[in-house]
Amino acid sequence: MIPLTSFYALTADKKRAIIILFIAAPFVILDAMSIFFSSRLLLLAAISFGTILYFYIIVLLVKNLLSHKVITADLIYCAISTYFLIGIMWATTYMVLEGIFPGSFSGVSEMPDLVYFSFVTLTTVGYGDISPQTILAKRLAIFEAAMGGIYLAVIVAMLVGRYMSMGEEKDIEEELNSKK
Predict the structure, then answer these.
(1) Domain range holding 82?
(2) pTM for this structure?
(3) Are residues 52 and 138 in the same domain?
(4) CA nearest 130: which of 122, 140, 118, 142?
(5) Number of structural domains in the chain
(6) Burial call 109-137: b when 16+ CB within 10 Å, e when fewer
């Protein structure tokens, strides 16, 4: 569903629509094929295209968040959705890593466990039941944790700051109107 909704939501620009289509099409096709043909390589290829698609969508959504001056409920929903997509993107990154280099993570019994690991890392909760074992896995986990903190500290703080300043501008405007 994410590729389809992304295509619908982010295709105002024809160039974007073509890029999303070229990334999403192989993702959807390979993912569907992996259901009928039980192949680890096919599934890894599908997940790889998914990771690229999620990354591209996140970049577009963050650009969208930064370009608006007026904060609306839709913009807040966009910020929340982007945060969740970041977690999903990292989960697919870890799935590809585990698929190419088995044993990159301890405590993983099946691939969906990496979705859990991703969100635990993104939110910096870090329970420790799943842990990265290779240097690459550890570096990626550090990068994800930093990205989660930076996203909240910079992007969400900026949205809150803009929202607060909108309220202050409205108060000043009301005050000026009441003095007239």
Answers:
(1) 68-180
(2) 0.84
(3) no
(4) 118
(5) 2
(6) eeeebbbbbbbbbbeeeeeeebebeeeeb
Please tell me whether residues 119 and 150 are part of one structural domain.
yes
C-beta neighbour count of 1 within 10 angstroms: 5
- Rounded to 10°, the helix 40-67/14-36 angle is 150
Q: Which of 21, 52, 67 is the last residue of a domain?
A: 67
Per-residue pLDDT of the chain (180 residues; tens, 9 = 90+): 666 666 566 667 788 888 888 888 899 899 899 889 888 899 999 999 999 999 999 998 898 888 888 888 788 888 888 999 999 999 999 999 999 999 999 999 998 999 999 999 999 998 989 999 999 999 999 999 999 999 999 988 888 888 888 766 666 666 667 766
